[in-house]
Amino acid sequence: MQELQINIIPGSSLEAERNETGKVLHYYNTTYYIDRQGDIKLRYRKVNLWGPEKQAVSAGHEHIVIDTEEFGKIGLLICWDLAFPEAFRELVKLGARYIFIPTLWRSPDCGEKGLAYNKQSEHIFINSTIATRAFEQNACIVFCNTGGPDADVYFGCSQITLPFKGPIVKFNGKEQVVVTEVELGSILEDAEEVWNLREELASPNWYPAKQ
């Protein structure tokens, strides 16, 4: 932001949409890309809502990518969006190279039934799904989850994950700050040469195939 001369994607917050008289029409779970001058360059309203969230929050309606001078094209998602490959596809079709996902995801979220099967259920969900998204979407996935004093609840799994490499940094449990330099180089281009994912997405005959 302006004082610190940093770009920032904060965790999501509740955003009210009001009419001309100030009456609240909708609440959205929203995150932002804020540049070094303190300007909001991208606002994303969460499209895929977690079950209980639907009782209080409206779903957003679109996925947007911003083309930054420093990093190229980036897109934003929030938390439970991770479970929907379609959300990632929309961003990749718009050219996103980085996809950032601020998150509040806890071990008990799988419920008593899930915990009865495996207390590490959500850890497995997060780690396997992020790796899959990075490979299947040919993108750099930056996932930032809540840490806290109770590692059995606030398990983290924050990570930066790339195709071919998998996670290049990952940490769990307690709150911490990690400074990492990400140099994509030609990795996304090399992955595209191998798998042609972005070319396929851009094709007018993209799945389901037109007859």
Task: Please outline what is shown here.
This protein has 211 residues and is α+β, with helices and mostly antiparallel strands.
Note down, in words, how this protein is organized.
This protein has 211 residues and is of the alpha+beta class. It has a domain at 103-202: 4-Layer Sandwich (Nitrilase/N-carbamoyl-D-aminoacid amidohydrolase). The protein is built from five helices and nine strands; from the N terminus they run E-E-E-E-E-H-E-H-H-E-E-E-H-H. The protein has helices spanning 85-93, 111-117, 121-137, 187-195, 197-202, and strands at residues 13-18, 24-34, 40-45, 65-68, 72-76, 98-102, 140-144, 156-162, 166-172. A six-stranded mixed beta sheet has the order 4-5-6-7-8-9, with helices on one face. Strands 1-2-3 form a three-stranded antiparallel beta sheet, with no helix packed on it. The chain is globular.
